Amino acid sequence: MAHKTRVFSGVQPTGNLHLGNYLGAITRFVKLQADHDCLYCVVDLHAITTFQDPDELARNTREVTAAFIASGIDPARHIVFNQSQVSGHAELAWIFNCVARLGWLNRMTQFKEKAGKDREAASAGLYVYPNLMAADILLYHATHVPVGEDQKQHLELARDIAQKFNNDFAKTIARAGYPDGFFPLPEPLITGPATRVMSLRDGTRKMSKSEESDMTRINLTDDADLIAKKIKKAKTDPEPLPSEVKGLEARPEADNLVGIYAGLAEISKDDVLREFGGATFSKFKEALAELATARLTPIGDEMRQLLADPVEIDRILSDGARRAHDIADPILAKTKDIVGFIRS
Ligand code: TYM
Question: Domains of the chain, with CATH numbers?
Answer without folding.
Answer: 6-189+309-339 (3.40.50.620), 214-305 (1.10.240.10)
